[in-house]
Protein: Urocanate hydratase
Organism: Gluconacetobacter azotocaptans
Amino acid sequence: MTKQRFGVTSGSNLRCRGWRQEGLLRLLENVLSVGEDPANLVVYAALGKAARDWPSHDAIVHALTTMGDDETLIVQSGKPIGVVKTHERAPVVIMANCNMVGQWAKAEEFYRLEKKGLICWGGLTAGDWQYIGSQGVIQGTYEIFRRIAERHFDGDLTGRLILTSGLGGMGGAQPLAGRLAGAIILCVEVDEARIARRIDSGYLQHHATSLDDAMRLVEAARAAGNASSIGLCGNAADIFPEILARGIVPDIVTDQTSAHDLIYGYVPTGLSLGEVKALRQSDPEALSRLSLASIARHVQAMLDFRAAGSVVFDNGNLIRTQAKTAGIEHAFDIPIFTEAYLRPLFARGIGPFRWIALSNDERDLRRIDEYLLKTFADNPSVVNWITLARQHIPIEGMPARIAWLGHGDRTKVGLDVNRMVREGILSGPVAFTRDHLDAGAMAHPNIMTENLKDGSDAIADWPLLNAMLACSSQADLVAIHSGGGGYAGYMTSAGVTTIADGSSEADERLRLTLTNDTSLGVMRYADAGYGEAVEEIERSRIPYINLAGHGG
Amino acid sequence: MTKQRFGVTSGSNLRCRGWRQEGLLRLLENVLSVGEDPANLVVYAALGKAARDWPSHDAIVHALTTMGDDETLIVQSGKPIGVVKTHERAPVVIMANCNMVGQWAKAEEFYRLEKKGLICWGGLTAGDWQYIGSQGVIQGTYEIFRRIAERHFDGDLTGRLILTSGLGGMGGAQPLAGRLAGAIILCVEVDEARIARRIDSGYLQHHATSLDDAMRLVEAARAAGNASSIGLCGNAADIFPEILARGIVPDIVTDQTSAHDLIYGYVPTGLSLGEVKALRQSDPEALSRLSLASIARHVQAMLDFRAAGSVVFDNGNLIRTQAKTAGIEHAFDIPIFTEAYLRPLFARGIGPFRWIALSNDERDLRRIDEYLLKTFADNPSVVNWITLARQHIPIEGMPARIAWLGHGDRTKVGLDVNRMVREGILSGPVAFTRDHLDAGAMAHPNIMTENLKDGSDAIADWPLLNAMLACSSQADLVAIHSGGGGYAGYMTSAGVTTIADGSSEADERLRLTLTNDTSLGVMRYADAGYGEAVEEIERSRIPYINLAGHGG
Ligand SMILES: NC(=O)c1ccc[n+]([C@@H]2O[C@H](COP(=O)([O-])OP(=O)(O)OC[C@H]3O[C@@H](n4cnc5c(N)ncnc54)[C@H](O)[C@@H]3O)[C@@H](O)[C@H]2O)c1
Ligand SMILES: NC(=O)c1ccc[n+]([C@@H]2O[C@H](COP(=O)([O-])OP(=O)(O)OC[C@H]3O[C@@H](n4cnc5c(N)ncnc54)[C@H](O)[C@@H]3O)[C@@H](O)[C@H]2O)c1
């Protein structure tokens, strides 16, 4: 039995006993409404699911609509296990998704367990109902492009060409982020329908019919001095080498195909989408081998672009790891985006903070935008981003915004918005959450924590502490996720959501959750030896225990 | 700077702001006072430590003695990171010890990180200050022997010979457990000093000078119809084959050397302890190879005993896994103790529950013993165990008791004891905790969760949920541990401690913590398809969401 329509709920009618439960229920509806394949509960990244299966989904909905304020729903890999009596300051929902014991945490074991219906992958924000559509990563991608602009192009990407691939749930943010950053961006995508979808949603402008056509569109934009986004249907493992062969050297090259998953994600060259689908069932191992071979070509082209002068970076899809397996020795010469561009932000606790207007009323989002523009008037990066976002980012699902805010600022926004809910300035409650790719929230040695100063890349204590601390800080939903599919064994992260329902209890929930979340993130980077974090600790008096002086 | 004396604190003087903090501080002192090598912070199992290093230890003590009741101390692999404001129903301490991202969770990476001072292994109960000396495992070992007696020897082990090895922190419980179970037990231990130590503590009776002497002692006990425990200095990899060669077939054979760790644990044959110590530094890889080769001989002898008719089982030290690596194809023919003997108990939430009298007053322990004998008068296994324990188990460190109790019973004991504290029947507060080897608390596919009915052996969501739930249920200390050393990548578990200080708040803390802890354990087994668990859910109305009927 499969649900057929995926809408979100508006207004102030409660189906649950309170807004904490109702808010989480609306978020669950929301991730499906903006998801890539909601009929199969898939939200993004090929396999990232909102619930294990439909009976689990329905039982989760039932639990949320019936449980009391002093109860906690336990979810194990997308399946609800029980609703137990806790207390009013305990989370409404705790979840652990896709965690496997280390020596077993491999793609094959994941697929085996998944096939048996014993596990499901929650992606980062799918399984814990925090996904807000392509907007979720757009500011991250935008910040990377801006930072590259500053470092390599005198702060100006006008006339500069970005080459990338993948226009899926996350990758679909790239054309808009590139255009907002002022560049011309060419996106190679193997699935025609994904290109159409991004054009429909306003994230992508042009659909090129061939590489020649694409390059004409690039040249036209360049001549006019315009930013532009162009989609081209094709396989990156073919098109990247072809561009190279023509002697074209883009200014920036990256990729966001689902390279992390050799079976359900990456599409190898030479096969139609239908053939890939069939092979997934009939011979997944052969499909893996073909994907690996294509990724080798794909990454070799990226390395060649790098040698030719392009700024090339890995945007967090494990493509280097796969390429290395496929024999591309130097794959890791390509730097990871976190280390290259975002680490100084994370060290200060600045990361992808987000909120969702649970009323489903766009005006609530606008009012919070205005509040931000006023309150952060002296913070150009916030002003710049909110201004762009208001103008250019289409609403998907419930009105939501992402903004890279740090320690202290997040708490301030949470409390101010809660007051706005209380005072009726907003028409309904607001949910606060963040990406898992946040300072204290993720251990991911090939992406988030690659090459940390102290070498603590692989230590996963931090996300676990992050989740335990959130449970101890009155968050409404807390999740621990590990990688599934090709990410199996590669990462562990924590997710947290807190509902601003205008109550004074919500003040306390938000104050503790948001403050402790960023505090731990900054402490994690201070512990790893980052000066920015040590500064932030002093500036904000974060209660870090500094043992450095004692040889600790 | 190393501490030199390791005592415990008595009486009702508080060094902290309340008993929750004071109790945890006393437990920290206690694990060192009963630990194997406290000067190096090692509590048991070769590397299981109470804190990362001495500066960390001192900073933990400082934090516990100064923090308020609405604050939480964060500990990452034995190092205190910060004390943050939470609230009065949040844990005093949260910790994550030795967790590594799956693909990196290997012994070599652990040693690399350990050497850099970035991580430390907490064992199960060392890092979270729950260890209570050899007594901790004694009932577990006793229960296994009793179960073997019932299944294979008409319930009577009189005159039966148990052969085992390893008299370390945990293994040292074997001679006493074997004797309490009525058997003659021969323990092979390579380190003379360990034998002496177990004799001093009253856990072991005889020190044989040779195998001939040992066998004479066995025969004498058999002739007299006595239970008996005999220690023999030697290497199991030599002595086991020698016993076999003499045509002696023990009734029961097991092992509790630190086989999980090829460098710091197992001692290979042919080397003196001094030579092993030197090799750890000079050539750890050579040492690993030698250990593996010895383990192969050791396990081959165990398999040969099995073929000759002995009841042989693995007692949870990964010796089969190592032997398999060393080429012993059939190592896993030896069953693991959990599956063979304890699973029906775990499925009902029955497991190694324990309490510690924080007053350090033995009379408190006696009073709780008496309460148990009265309250559980109709439960022969409790009565039998408490009676034996009172008579035979020497007190190590603070007075503590272990008893295998299940869902409901644990909550009852917790609440009754808290009342006894409140009414002054006991002279001070009592800490409640349990081993990590408990129903919902551990994923350990080669030990705890081997061969589960549904195949969910490697899923680690459960211990993570267990920890999150404990944080949400007002536990005082919550820990997530993963394996270090040779256990790296093999397990994840959760620890929880709650202090009964006689207050009504403690009533709530104990009710929620103890009830939810066993509830989750039973749900885990119900989810895996165990009938005992489904029965317990019905009997105790555990709020499990049963999707079985819906194909979930
Ligand atoms: N920066 C980050 O930390 C971050 C954030 C989110 C997602 N990701 C990763 O980015 C990747 C993309 O995520 P998503 O949610 O967009 O995944 P998705 O599965 O929704 O989309 C992937 C897209 O790539 C296309 N594709 C696959 N193989 C291709 C090929 N050879 N050539 C051209 N197109 C191809 C697919 O058709 C699909 O549209 C994933 O690996 C994801 O885990 C990274
Ligand atoms: N049943 C369980 O679940 C459970 C509980 C606790 C410990 N364990 C495991 O049991 C093992 C023992 O734990 P411990 O705390 O006693 O460890 P320990 O390191 O304190 O003691 C191990 C003992 O084995 C001896 N030894 C080593 N190699 C030997 C050999 N070849 N022959 C004879 N003796 C040898 C050592 O001298 C030492 O005394 C560990 O692997 C531990 O992880 C299992």
About this structure: Residues A 36, 44-46, 137, 165-171, 188-191, 194, 235-237, 256-260, 265-267, 294, 315-317, 437, 447 surround nicotinamide-adenine-dinucleotide (ligand 1) (CB under 6 Å).
